[in-house]
Amino acid sequence: MGMTTETQNQPEILRCDNATLERRKGVYLLHLKGSYEEMGYQHGALALRTTGNAALNYFDTMIESVIAHAVPPLAGFIGALLKNVFHTLNKSRMGAELGDHIRGYASAIGRPPSDLEKIAMVPDILHYLIGVAFPPLAMGPSCSGFMARASATQDGKLLIGRNFDFFGQGVWDAANALIVMEPDQGQKLCWVGALGVPAGPQGINEAGIVISLHTKFNRDVRLTGIPLFSLCARIMQHAETLDDALAIIAEQPRMCGLSLFITDTKAHDAAVCGFSANDMEIIRPENDILVRANHYITDAMKKYEVAPHPWVLHSTARYKRINHLLNEKHGALAPEDIPRILSDRVDPWEGGPERVAGNIVSATNNAQSVAYSPDDDALWLANGTFPVCRSEKFEGFRISALFARDRANYDIPDLPGAPALGADEKIAEYNYQQAWQAHQDNHDDDRALFHLLQAAEALPQEPVFPRLAGITHMKHKRFAQAIPLLERNVELTRGTPLMRAEAHVWLARCLDLAGDHAAAVPHYRAAVELDAPPVSAAARRHIDYPCTTKVLADVSPEYTVGTAVVKY
Question: Which residues constitute the domain of residue 460?
Answer without folding.
Answer: 423-565
